[in-house]
Specification:
Blueprint: E1 10-14, E2 21-23, E3 34-37, E4 44-47, E5 53-55, H1 75-80
Antiparallel strand pairs: 1-2, 1-5, 3-4
Length: 81
């Protein structure tokens, strides 16, 4: 009947490497740049306030599924999967 807490919108950023929406960890909007570590690929990047938006973070279901290109694999390695 009620939506789960995880379905609520949060401040998120789009990872510059794997393009997944990652929670920023902020409860309020910040007017300064922030550092966010992607929960999917592990990359830490700086994000400007204009790159932070209200949305739903990407959820990993069951087995951790990561993009093989995020870990430094070559494109041919990704095609073999």
């Amino acid at each position: 009947m009620f939506s789960k807490m995880s379905n609520r919108k949060r401040f998120v950023v789009t990872c510059k490497l794997c393009r997944k929406d990652v929670p920023s960890g902020m409860k309020e909007f910040s007017f300064r740049s922030i550092a966010v570590t992607c929960s999917s690929c592990g990359e830490e990047r700086q994000y400007l306030p204009s790159e932070v938006f209200l949305g739903r973070p990407y959820r990993l279901e069951g087995i951790r599924q990561t993009n093989p290109l995020c870990r430094g694999a070559s494109f041919s390695d990704a095609l073999e999967l």
